[in-house]
């Protein structure tokens, strides 16, 4: 039964209502009937009708147009089909103007009405699928679906919420695998642009010319193989958000082009001479230190400031180790259900291994490691043995590689590093180094370190 | 014991009831009983449209159905319609006891062609299976060759087979085995 799509038939003649309802019921629809406008509106309040057939002429009380308008008020999504015994252009125009989807003259051919109903319902089905997908997307990228109990991450999530509805450009920094695109999507799907497109472009993946036509589109004949006009990502993202990943890798020419788009919200397609105007929010991301790139002359300073209106710096996973158990459990549940493997969870010992690992590939690496463990898991629980291949121990990616130098040089480097970490605070640096303050002062003098 | 009653309404082509009886006996595990012919219900004729209101046939059948009848099928040779639609091949109460089939538009003569009795028989069987299927809870089927597919013109009737598709047939069998024939 197509119970999800109830239909209402409104006519003052019982025979018309009942015969039409019976005919539609044969098609599997749930059909209600109303003999006047008031009753129809009452019914529409209680049930979500996909289609309402409304007779135009109903003596006494509300006529068809009034009934249609009232139904529309309570059920804006309902498609109204106005029925009349006489075809007059005026009433047809009025009915359509007031929001009727179709206008039919009775008696009509069964084929006509059958096609009409199936056409409207096909559209409704697409609309509802579209709504479900949008909802799913929004749910997928809502802030509280980014899994964390780390205070820094929580601050970042609060910030993304605050900036969600602004048009300001944002720059997300973080090592690869820290979830830069996820945060960009969270910003997009929490704000007023959520219903519009989110378009992601990986700037490092393409050559300069390809990236240029990818971003700005091209006109027919602008280069070999440009057989027709094509819209670029900026146009496709109109009204929504464009996410430019690995922005630190774009060429000087593209930096200039991008700066112009950010300033004027206008650009030319490759080979085009007509300006295209867009309303796009730009969120850029990089794992490079752009400020340093600016200093080195590799990245335009003006573009850097245009992009860096709001800066979000994502911590690497090793700096939010408290999230590792949460993320691990989440991935176990999701991946085991996707792979159809019955893996119930992860043992305490296995978690210790995961927490101790340094995750140079961050959350993405954790996800991959869990997936690999689930694929090879033989029993219903991931334990230490499932991660035995993972590099163990507290080896940190920023740990020293101990060079072949005199011991004194190592001591000097240790002191410099401690002072840098403690922002030149000698008291804190001495505590960190496990020596007292006066000893540290002596060593500073000996190694001629200024602080 | 419940049964399937057949009622001719007005004159019918020779052999029509036999065709229907044979087809119904093949598909429905119910005793079949022919009731005495009825005349066209009074007030059913719509002089403007020069057609007969199907609803009047349904009402008459519902009133005359014997108490022990499980289903009552009226068969007529006049052109049926409802206010909304320009014609009907037949009508049924969905999961209800009453159905009616019109043979009027199943004749080749209706389309200005020479009559073909065998074609009329095939079409009649298909429409009878269709309307009775509705009374046993079958809805329109997307399989064009199934008797339960919706035919809104004669070519679509001809595209059907004189049988239900496997899915609709199975649904009927399950219903009969569950409900002991009703």
Concise structural overview:
Helices cover 47% and strands 14% of the residues of chain A.
Give an account of the 3D structure.
The complex is a heterodimer of chains A (451) and B (182). Chain A is α/β, with parallel strands linked by helices and 451 residues long. Chain A folds into 4 domains: 2-131, Rossmann fold (3-Layer(aba) Sandwich), CATH 3.40.50.2300; 142-313, P-loop containing nucleotide triphosphate hydrolases (Rossmann fold); 318-387, Helicase, Ruva Protein, domain 3 (Orthogonal Bundle), CATH 1.10.8.60; 407-446, Orthogonal Bundle (Arc Repressor Mutant, subunit A). Chain A has 18 helices and 14 strands. Chain A has helices at residues 14-25, 37-46, 64-74, 89-97, 110-141, 151-163, 180-190, 208-216, 233-236, 252-264, 290-295, 301-307, 323-339, 348-356, 362-376, 407-421, 426-433, 437-446; strands at 2-10, 29-34, 51-55, 79-84, 102-105, 170-173, 198-202, 241-245, 266-268, 275-277, 281-286, 310-313, 345-346, 381-382. In chain A, helix 3 (64-74) links the parallel strand 3 and strand 4 (79-84). The longest helix of chain A has 32 residues, at 110-141. Chain B has one domain: Collagenase (Catalytic Domain) (3-Layer(aba) Sandwich), CATH 3.40.390. Chain B has helices at residues 16-27, 54-64, 117-135, 154-159, 166-179; strands at residues 3-9, 32-34, 45-46, 51-53, 69-76, 80-81, 90-92, 98-102. In chain B, the strands form 2 sheets. Chain B has a 5-stranded mixed beta sheet with strand order 2-1-5-8-7, with helices on both faces. In chain B, strands 3-4-6 form a 3-stranded mixed beta sheet. In chain B, helix 1 packs across helix 3 (117-135). The radius of gyration of chain B is 15 Å and the shape is globular. The termini of chain B are close together. Chains A and B meet through helix 1 and helix 5 of A and loops of B.
């Amino acid at each position: 039964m197509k119970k999800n799509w109830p239909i209402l038939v409104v006519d003052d003649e019982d025979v018309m209502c009942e015969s039409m309802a019976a005919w539609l019921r044969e098609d599997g629809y749930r059909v209600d009937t109303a003999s006047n406008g008031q009753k129809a509106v009452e019914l529409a309040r209680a049930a979500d009708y996909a289609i309402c057939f409304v007779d135009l002429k109903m003596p006494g009380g509300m006529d068809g147009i009034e009934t249609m308008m009232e139904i529309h008020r309570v059920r804006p999504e309902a498609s109204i089909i106005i029925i009349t015994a006489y075809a007059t252009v005026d009433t047809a125009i009025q009915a359509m103007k007031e929001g009727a989807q179709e206008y039919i003259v009775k008696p009509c051919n069964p084929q006509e009405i059958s096609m009409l109903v199936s056409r409207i319902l096909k559209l409704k089905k697409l609309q509802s699928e579209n709504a479900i997908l949008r909802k799913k997307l929004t749910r997928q990228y809502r802030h509280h679906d980014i899994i964390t109990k780390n205070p820094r991450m929580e601050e970042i999530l609060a910030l993304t919420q605050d900036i969600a509805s602004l048009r300001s450009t944002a720059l997300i920094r973080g090592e690869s695998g820290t979830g830069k695109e996820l945060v960009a999507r969270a910003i997009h799907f929490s704000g007023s642009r959520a219903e519009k497109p989110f378009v992601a472009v990986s700037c490092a993946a393409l050559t300069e010319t390809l990236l240029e036509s990818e971003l700005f589109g091209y006109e027919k004949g602008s280069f070999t193989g440009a057989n027709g006009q094509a819209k670029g990502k900026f146009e496709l993202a109109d009204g929504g958000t464009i996410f430019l990943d690995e922005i630190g890798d774009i060429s000087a020419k593209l930096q200039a082009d991008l700066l112009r788009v950010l300033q004027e919200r206008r650009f030319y397609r490759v080979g085009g001479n007509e300006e295209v105007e867009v309303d796009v929010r730009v969120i850029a991301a990089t794992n490079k230190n752009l400020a340093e790139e600016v200093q080195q002359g590799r990245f335009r300073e003006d573009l850097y400031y245009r992009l860096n209106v709001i800066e979000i710096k994502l911590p690497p996973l090793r700096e939010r180790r408290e999230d590792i158990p949460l993320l691990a459990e989440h991935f176990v549940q999701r991946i085991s259900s996707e792979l159809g493997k019955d893996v119930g969870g992860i043992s305490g010992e296995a978690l210790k291994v995961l927490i101790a690992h340094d995750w140079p590939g961050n959350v993405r690496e954790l996800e991959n490691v869990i997936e690999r463990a689930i694929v090879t898991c033989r029993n219903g629980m991931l334990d230490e043995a499932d991660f035995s291949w993972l590099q163990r121990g507290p080896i940190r990616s920023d740990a020293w590689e101990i060079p072949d130098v005199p011991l004194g040089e190592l001591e000097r480097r240790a002191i410099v590093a401690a002072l840098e970490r403690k922002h030149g605070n000698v008291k804190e640096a001495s505590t960190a180094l496990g020596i007292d303050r006066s000893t540290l002062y002596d060593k500073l003098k000996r190694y001629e370190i200024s602080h | 014991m419940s049964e399937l009653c057949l009622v001719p309404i007005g004159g019918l082509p020779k052999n029509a009831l036999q065709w229907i009886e044979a087809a119904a006996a093949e598909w429905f595990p119910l005793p079949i009983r022919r009731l005495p012919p009825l005349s066209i219900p009074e007030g059913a004729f719509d002089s403007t449209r020069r057609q007969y209101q199907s609803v009047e046939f349904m009402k008459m059948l519902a009133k005359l159905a014997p108490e022990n009848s499980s289903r009552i099928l009226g068969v007529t040779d006049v052109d049926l319609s409802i206010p909304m639609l320009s014609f009907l091949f037949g009508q049924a109460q969905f999961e209800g006891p009453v159905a009616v089939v019109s043979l009027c538009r199943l004749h080749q003569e209706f389309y200005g062609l020479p009559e073909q009795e065998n074609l009329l028989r095939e079409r009649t069987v298909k429409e009878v299976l269709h309307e009775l299927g509705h009374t046993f809870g079958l809805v329109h089927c997307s399989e064009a060759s199934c008797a339960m597919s919706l035919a809104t013109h004669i070519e679509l009737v001809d595209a059907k087979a004189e049988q239900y598709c496997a899915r609709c047939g199975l649904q009927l069998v399950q219903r009969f085995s569950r409900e002991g024939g009703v």
